[in-house]
Amino acid sequence: MKIQMPRVSVAAGLPDRGAAGHLLVLVQKGSRPEKVFAHALRDQVSRRVAPGGGKAGKAAPLSATQQDRLVVWAEWDPAASIFDQQTGVRKALHLINGECPSDLDLVIHAEPSTASAGAALAIQVVLMNSQYQLGKTTNQAASANASLKRLQVFGVAKNFSPARAMAVAEGNLLARALTLRPPNDLTPKRFRADIGKLAQQNGWQVKEFSFKSLGKLGAGAFCAVAQGSPQQDAAIVRLSYRPPAAAKGRAPVALVGKGICMDTGGHGLKSAKGMYGMHEDMAGSAVVLGILKAASDLRLPVPIDAWLAIAQNHIGPGAYQPGDVVTALDGTTIEVVHTDAEGRMVLADTLTLAIREKPSCVLDFATLTGAMVHALDSRMAGVFANSSTLAGMALAAGSASGERVVLFPLDADYDEALESKVADVKQCLIGGEGDAIYAARFLSRFVNAVPWVHMDLSAYRHTGGLAAVASDLNGFGVGWGLAMLENPQVA
After folding, report:
1. What range does the domain containing 128 cover?
2. If DSSP codes are grouped into helix, strand and coil, which group holds residue 457?
3. In a domain, 1, yes or no
4. Using a CB cutoff of 8 Å and minimum separation of 24, what contacts does 262-265 make?
5. Could you tell me if 156 and 193 lie in one domain?
6. Are 191 and 156 part of one and the same domain?
7. Which phi and psi angles does 413 have, rounded to 5°?
8. The total number of structural domains that make up the chain
9. From the candidates 149, 150, 190, 270, which is the catalytic residue?
10. 265 and 239 assigned to the same domain
11. Is 270 a catalytic residue?
């Protein structure tokens, strides 16, 4: 699937006062915007952003109309965290997006040393919120104002490039568009077909490990989950991105994503409230595709293998059940405790396949545990790492991307509680206490000594929007993942 992105251009001077499109003006904190038009409104902003002026704390955006044109002014503080900067721009943009404009002019009124950073951040926010009907299924004719068509940027140098902001935004939109698709549409079979189309469009190599072939390989953990689906259309899909600019012989980075297209809980059947929205349990795989798309668009000189664990967790005569003992691809025997802990099962065999290709490191993404939501709510995500270097990179990437993460413990003594009397390891604890940590300890068995970061995507959906994104479903992880890949230490 392809997202129709707005046309982005950079212009000199200031927008034409008689233009029909709406206008968003970002004014750097501490500056006086004497040169920006709309004097009465400009003077209000001047009083609020001037040193010592206005009330303490964050200044709310201001809006007015000028010749039928909605103008919104917002203060931008380059010293604030990226998360706070994104949030401020998103809230200012919300005043404009309520009218679903097809054209938008963006003015950056800032010092030359900071204008490019402000423009890149603002462009990313605008583009991430440019599809006004994202995820909506309808047979009605497409509305003329279903999306933003044109974005013109003023106040930056001639050599300014919006490429990175555009790549992050498109990757984010791809992840959200996939995750929003209903479960009777995005079945494993159709998901795999769409992945094949994406691979063709972007020049990725693709290889599928079907349910049947995985059974022959001995991937008993993955197949235990997938066997409850009557279609048996589950698969592990590998996508390979090999840029010409990559250093010769450089090991790939492995991205692993949980892709459960519908999670009923199996025999541990969820309640109606708990099951609603569980078609979004494939968000981890969508995030991986978004990262891969952004990296490809930017032609990052980093070889990447993306591994997507695509299945459904259904209940039926063939579904796996508590008390079963299954053998994972690496030979580990697993005692099944709770069939709703299916994510760690499919990831176990997917991680095993990934590390067989000897990657430099592994980054995995999964909507894995409710325990992480209880720990952090939905404003941040939890990460686990078996490498202090990667742990530091993960935290830095969270700050740089505005997708905030918290580092959780991965100490080996947690393994004592996962000891089983009938197998090598228990899948989980029946009580659920500390489940996010126990899930990470379980997964760590399957990466061996390969440097690895696991992200538990507790922030993938946040009511009212989060950071750059105004919708509840926010594509959390795409920006973070790209920041990780851009770090020279990732290799």
Report:
1. 7-161
2. coil
3. no
4. 262/183, 262/312, 262/313, 262/314, 263/312, 263/313, 263/340, 263/342, 264/313, 264/314, 264/315, 265/313, 265/315, 265/339, 265/340
5. no
6. no
7. -70, -15
8. 2
9. 270
10. yes
11. yes
- 155 and 193 co-located in one domain: no
Give domain status of residue 70, yes or no: yes
Say how far apart CA 175 and CA 481 lie, in whole Å: 12
**How far apart, in whole angstroms, are the C-alpha atoms of residue 259 and residue 262?**
9
Measuring CA to CA, which residue among 445, 454, 412 is closest to residue 427? Answer: 445
Q: What is the pLDDT along the chain (491 residues), one digit of tens a residue?
A: 678 899 999 998 878 766 667 999 999 998 765 555 555 555 555 554 444 444 434 667 877 676 677 889 899 999 999 999 999 999 999 999 999 999 999 999 999 999 999 999 999 999 999 999 998 888 776 666 789 999 999 999 999 999 999 999 999 999 999 999 999 999 999 999 999 999 999 999 999 999 999 999 999 999 999 999 999 999 999 999 999 988 888 999 999 999 999 999 999 999 999 999 999 999 999 999 999 999 999 999 999 999 999 999 999 999 999 999 999 999 999 999 999 999 999 999 999 999 999 999 999 999 999 999 999 999 999 999 999 999 999 999 999 999 999 999 999 999 999 999 999 999 999 999 999 999 999 999 999 999 999 999 999 999 999 999 999 999 999 999 999 999 998 86
- Looking at the fold, whether 146 and 278 belong to one and the same domain comes out as no
Asked if residue 387 is part of any domain, the answer here is yes
DSSP 113-150: HHHHHHHHHHHHHHHHT-BTTTT----SPPPTTSB--E
Exposed/middle/buried for residue 20 (C-beta within 10 Å: 0-12, 13-18, 19+) = exposed
Quick one: 245 exposed, middle or buried, by C-beta within 10 A (0-12, 13-18, 19+)?
Answer: exposed
Q: Is 344 a catalytic residue?
A: yes
Question: Given 42, 181, 344, 441, which residue is catalytic?
Answer: 344
Domain contains 467:
yes
Residue 449 and residue 347 share a domain: yes
Axis-axis angle for helices 82-97, 112-128 (nearest 10)? 60
- Three-point CA angle 399, 202, 166, nearest 5°: 40
- Residues 357 and 225 both lie in one domain: yes
Domain containing residue 318: CATH number: 3.40.630.10
- Do 122 and 180 sit in the same domain of this protein? no
Q: Compute the distance between CA of residue 426 and CA of residue 420 in angstroms, rounded to an integer.
A: 5
User: Nearest to residue 353, comparing CAs of 303, 306, 290?
Assistant: 306
Q: Which two tokens stand for residue 13?
A: 């001077």
CATH code, domain carrying 99: 3.40.220.10
Choosing from 161, 178, 212, the residue where a domain stops is: 161
Alpha helices in 10-162 (DSSP H): 39-49, 82-97, 112-128
Instruction: Indicate the residue among 131, 161, 191 that finishes a domain.
Output: 161
